[in-house]
């Protein structure tokens, strides 16, 4: 299909203004939040805004690549020391999904299997794909996860800004900051290649985890090709925010009002439980409470790790917690669905 670039100019102009406006207003993560809110607002109002083809994948590649550069040998050793707490984070993520499932099933009047995939705090695309495989209502799953991501990406950064959580983990930011344009091109090619490998193997979140793996392995081996220039990081955030916002159509809030209302309450409860669990964990570890809060927050991998990066809050720790969360939730999603089929067949 021929691409008509003029169709995307309105969207690019709108989200660029949103990013610059958010930066001028002093918002947290302005290059993600500004485009996201502008894109979502225009989409809900019926303006035919379209995201760039492969824009989301490009944005995720930039973010994954940027995050991988934090995994120096000393940081990997530090993460190994926190392995037990990451295991606790995996269990906590699954429990949040179970709590959400009961709430959505009980109050939103959807079947139990759809409630599970709508509530499991894995990636939105992964949960939607698995919902289709296991016979759940994909449209309701997508709606619930879209609202969850929007709420968390909006609430958490503004709360952190209000509380003054910034720069509390500067010790983990000792990374290469020299941009080498030839090395950067080679780094990008390596990240794209591993992203395609993940996609070919049908592994979870290939355009985040593939580039993350490539950059992480190079950094762990002390091969420092280049840092990621700030303008490229901003562009990646803009593309992700733009793509996320276009998921909201004019009928989004009318499509399943009860489900969306219950989901909103579940998200608020989940954030409260996350705060309590993070605070308790901070008392027995040397990880700061704000870093744990981002690492355990039931938001998207890219969005929460971008927040950690911008606010200087333990990027490798936050990233590792979210990678573990994705493994736990995606790995158990099918098992829970089969359990529902066996134990509660009438709720299929």
Structure, explained:
One of its GO terms (molecular function) is monooxygenase activity. The chain crosses the membrane at residues 31-52, 59-77, 83-104, 142-160, 181-203, 256-281, 313-336. This protein is mainly α and 348 residues long. The protein has one domain. The protein has 16 helices and no strands. The longest helix has 29 residues, at 315-343.
Number of domains: 1
Shape: globular
Helix content: over 70%
Characterize the largest beta sheet: strand count, sense, and whether it forms a barrel: none
Protein name: Ammonia monooxygenase
Transmembrane segments: 31-52, 59-77, 83-104, 142-160, 181-203, 256-281, 313-336
Pfam families: AbrB
GO molecular function, one term: monooxygenase activity
List keywords for this structure.
348 residues; mainly alpha; 16 helices; 74% helix; globular; membrane; monooxygenase activity; Ammonia monooxygenase; transmembrane helix
At a glance:
This protein has 348 residues and is an all-alpha fold.
Helix and strand arrangement:
Elements: H1 6-25, H2 30-44, H3 55-68, H4 73-81, H5 83-107, H6 112-119, H7 124-133, H8 138-163, H9 181-200, H10 206-220, H11 230-245, H12 252-255, H13 257-282, H14 289-296, H15 301-311, H16 315-343
Helix pairs in contact: 1-2, 2-11, 3-9, 3-10, 3-11, 3-15, 5-6, 5-13, 5-16, 6-7, 6-8, 6-16, 7-8, 8-13, 9-10, 13-14, 14-16, 15-16
GO molecular function, one term: monooxygenase activity
Keywords: Membrane, Monooxygenase, Oxidoreductase, Transmembrane, Transmembrane helix
Organism: Neisseria weaveri
């Amino acid at each position: 299909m021929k691409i008509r670039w003029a169709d995307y100019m309105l969207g690019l102009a709108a989200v660029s203004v949103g990013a610059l406006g958010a930066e001028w207003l002093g918002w947290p993560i302005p290059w993600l939040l500004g485009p996201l809110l502008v894109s979502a607002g225009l989409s809900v109002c019926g303006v035919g805004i379209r995201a760039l083809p492969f824009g989301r994948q490009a944005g995720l590649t930039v973010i994954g690549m940027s995050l991988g550069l934090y995994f120096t040998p000393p940081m990997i050793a530090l993460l190994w020391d926190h392995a037990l707490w990451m295991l606790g984070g995996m269990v906590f993520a699954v429990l949040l999904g179970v709590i959400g499932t009961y709430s959505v099933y009980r109050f939103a009047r959807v079947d139990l299997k759809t409630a599970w995939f709508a509530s499991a705090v894995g990636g939105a695309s992964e949960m939607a794909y698995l919902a289709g495989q296991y016979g759940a209502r994909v449209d309701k799953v997508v709606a619930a996860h879209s609202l969850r991501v929007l709420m968390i990406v909006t609430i958490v950064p503004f709360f952190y800004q209000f509380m003054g959580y910034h720069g509390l983990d500067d010790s983990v930011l000792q990374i290469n900051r020299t941009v080498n344009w030839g090395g950067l091109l080679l780094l990008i090619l390596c990240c794209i290649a591993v992203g395609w490998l993940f996609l070919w193997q049908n592994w979870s979140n290939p355009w985040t985890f593939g580039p993350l793996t490539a950059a992480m392995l190079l950094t762990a081996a002390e091969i420092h090709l280049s840092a990621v220039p700030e303008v490229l990081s901003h562009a990646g955030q803009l593309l992700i925010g733009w793509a996320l916002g276009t998921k909201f159509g004019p009928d989004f809030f009318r499509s399943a009002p009860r489900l969306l209302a219950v989901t909103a309450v579940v998200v608020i409860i989940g954030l409260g439980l996350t705060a309590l669990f993070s605070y308790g964990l901070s008392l027995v570890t040397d990880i700061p409470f704000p870093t744990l809060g981002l690492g355990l927050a039931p938001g998207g991998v890219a969005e929460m790790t971008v927040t950690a990066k911008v606010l200087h809050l333990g990027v490798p720790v936050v990233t590792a917690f979210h990678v573990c969360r994705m493994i736990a939730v995606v790995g158990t999603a099918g098992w829970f669905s089969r359990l529902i089929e066996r134990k509660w067949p009438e709720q299929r």
